[in-house]
Amino acid sequence: MQAEIITIGDELLIGQTIDTNSAWMGEQLNAIGMHVHQISSISDHDGHIQSALDDALERSDLILITGGLGPTKDDVTKFTLCEYFDTKLVKNQEVLDGIEAYFSGRGIPIMEANRLQAMLPEACTVLINTLGTASGMWFERNGKVVVSMPGVPYEMKGLMTREVLPRAQKHFKTPFIYHRTLLTFGRGESRIAEQIADLEEQMHAQGIKLAFLPAAGRVKLRLSSSGEREAQVKEKVDVLFERLRERLSDIVFGEGKTEMEEALAAVLKERKKTIACAESCTGGRIAALLSKHPGSSSFFLGGVVAYSNDVKMDVLGVQSASLEAHGAVSETTVKEMLLGALKLSNADYAMATSGIAGPDGGSERKPVGTVWVAYGSREKHFAVQLQLGSNRERIVSVATLSAINLLRQAILEGKV
Amino acid sequence: MQAEIITIGDELLIGQTIDTNSAWMGEQLNAIGMHVHQISSISDHDGHIQSALDDALERSDLILITGGLGPTKDDVTKFTLCEYFDTKLVKNQEVLDGIEAYFSGRGIPIMEANRLQAMLPEACTVLINTLGTASGMWFERNGKVVVSMPGVPYEMKGLMTREVLPRAQKHFKTPFIYHRTLLTFGRGESRIAEQIADLEEQMHAQGIKLAFLPAAGRVKLRLSSSGEREAQVKEKVDVLFERLRERLSDIVFGEGKTEMEEALAAVLKERKKTIACAESCTGGRIAALLSKHPGSSSFFLGGVVAYSNDVKMDVLGVQSASLEAHGAVSETTVKEMLLGALKLSNADYAMATSGIAGPDGGSERKPVGTVWVAYGSREKHFAVQLQLGSNRERIVSVATLSAINLLRQAILEGKV
């Protein structure tokens, strides 16, 4: 079964917005066994939307459209689809009630333009958007399906997960596809490939596809296979997945969609331990990750972002002698930051970072990308020096993940 | 003059790679007055490349292709173009010399597959890639142009800047296109639309296109127009842009690509002032934004992430009586947090947040989405209560931007 994605919006064509929706949608469609044939970004223009739909429907079975559903004049998708499917707009009371509740819940006066968002094409199945005011629309014609969704990423994701993907699976009777993804941190793609060459051959022989998905510091290994018999497909993937996990046990931090901070959270919750952090170069990113998920207040107590040396000394208790003798980016300083965070918060464990994120501030002895990470408890703590290249954004994000991973591993190994 | 972008690569269709090339290319094309009609992402498959080219050439004058030029078997773009333009591969000595120098310079043994990258279509103008081994190719047919470039972003950007854009400007005598984008925060798209309905009509009458681009809490308003005479186009857009800015002055925080934290940074740098923050529900996001850009250490001293009440009391000096009487999410507490951050950091200004990000922790009096934000200096500070809906991610991100914006406005207005 073939799918296409059409993203609508002039902002995509002039480079104002990077289209991140398509990649997410492509991944989701793949996961349910729909092959994505093409992604097209087009303008908010009725003629263009119609011709893009003509082209896509000629090639593919399922067309997912995002964008152009706002309440303003430049949003023409709904009207264009109405014309395309030769239908008229009718009021949807459930949607209208939802829109009115949305506005009253926020204490914002509702406008006529918002009420008009409840006028929807008669010929479509309305997909209720619980996260915004633009509804999803599901059209069918000759067995093919066209779905329109808002372009706001979290609204689109909500609609995809709750409505579009389950409906598409049912409508297209997609073959059973089974994926398992192993998550690793701290080793490059080619070194991993070398290390698992024999397993990769076994997978190949059994019709299991292995994909390497690299992201900052991490490599995800996704195994997938499809077939008629669910139990059989699952079993052969599971066996090789476990072999892979064993082979790479020193770098595996989880599976599926687990984020690094969730892996640490699980370890902490299980042991009923708490943490805190002291951040210099990561500037709040560790805290932001640790507090990202619901329920994080059960283990995350807080942190100090000590960007200036004064804050390092006055708040965290770093010794001025340490800063003078070793500099802010040093083992001594980062350990003192760690102890400061532990003392202030009374947490069981902490992490601390201090590094040179660049582009300025590097020297020959401590080039941009030098980051010290400390982790552990008051009694047992460690520090390591990392070299994380020269890209500011990457340095900060890999330093953040490294700190979280180092603490996670140390707890699991009983080192701290 | 109309352009299209075709990005080639299976990794784009399965969501493994987000296509960031297209946005950059679109922006560059727009800047030289080429209107980007469509962006298409397709697979590494000769039939698909040919049909995508057929479609694009029917609609547009300039087609930019990226990807599929590597030395491995799955890269078919060069061979497909050779067939498409009915030509044959010939050795390009200059390119071969470059490839050999590239490998010897890196001390890597050269492979036959790399040497074959110097075999290029006879019918094209070869565009020398000084940053890699895959050359650019410029084909012309009936006045229309097809350009192929490697998909590696920095190689593509090098070729675009040095070769493709100057040649395109010369080849197509393009009209001038002019964009200006006004950035607003804190008011919905439809309310803004209502407020500027008369200006929107004036724009329409003058051939100026207005686009509303909403993101969490923000709405960008982009005006664009094109024409032969640069000065005339600029003037009519500028006049209406200034009227728009005036009409929306209470919610405008910048123009162009400025981020909210950059708008605050500019205000602080100009006044040589420093800031700090105390965060509960935003959990480090304010600090992470403030430290995101190079040079932020000149104004950002640090912050405290006070997730637990103990950290609020022990580090920030929040009174236990305040927490007992009013709770953590209250005007009293958030102001005490603010004062704590100011005292600890000695900063001129600070921001503080305390709220219920959900999904749990809400009550009838303080539902999920209730956030208190304090901002100001030791002498003059204020606090406001916000209601930010029920989506955890959105609550945190809008609270973060609100805090930054409130402080920015207060400084500009001389309130703090």
Throw out a few tags for this protein.
42% helix; five-stranded mixed β-sheet; 416 residues; 16 helices; homodimer; Molybdenum Cofactor Biosythetic Enzyme, Chain A; 3 domains; alpha/beta; 17 strands; Alpha-Beta Plaits; six-stranded mixed β-sheet; Maf protein
- Which oligomeric form is depicted? homodimer
Report the strand count of chain A. 17
CATH architecture of the largest domain in chain A: 3-Layer(aba) Sandwich
Low-confidence stretches of chain A: none
> Strand order within the widest sheet of chain A?
2-1-3-8-7-6
Tell me the major beta sheet of chain A: 6 strands, mixed
Radius of gyration of chain A: 26 Å
How far the N terminus sits from the C terminus of chain A, by CA atoms, comes to: 52 Å
Total number of helices of chain A: 16
Commentary on this structure:
- The structure is a homodimer of 416-residue chains.
- Chain A is α/β, with parallel strands linked by helices.
- Chain A folds into three domains: 2-172, 3-Layer(aba) Sandwich (Molybdenum Cofactor Biosythetic Enzyme, Chain A); 176-255, Alpha-Beta Plaits (2-Layer Sandwich); 260-412, Maf protein (Alpha-Beta Complex), CATH 3.90.950.
- Chain A has helices at 10-13, 21-31, 46-59, 77-84, 93-106, 112-115, 153-172, 189-195, 197-205, 230-247, 260-271, 285-290, 309-314, 320-326, 331-345, 392-412; strands spanning 2-8, 35-42, 62-66, 89-91, 119-121, 125-127, 136-141, 144-149, 176-185, 209-215, 218-227, 252-255, 275-279, 300-306, 349-355, 370-376, 381-387.
- In chain A, the strands form four sheets. In chain A, strands 2-1-3-8-7-6 form a six-stranded mixed β-sheet, with helices on both faces. Chain A has a five-stranded mixed β-sheet with strand order 14-13-15-16-17, with helices on both faces.
- The radius of gyration of chain A is 26 Å and the shape is globular.
- The mean pLDDT of chain A is 94.
- The interface between A and B is large, with 87 and 90 residues.
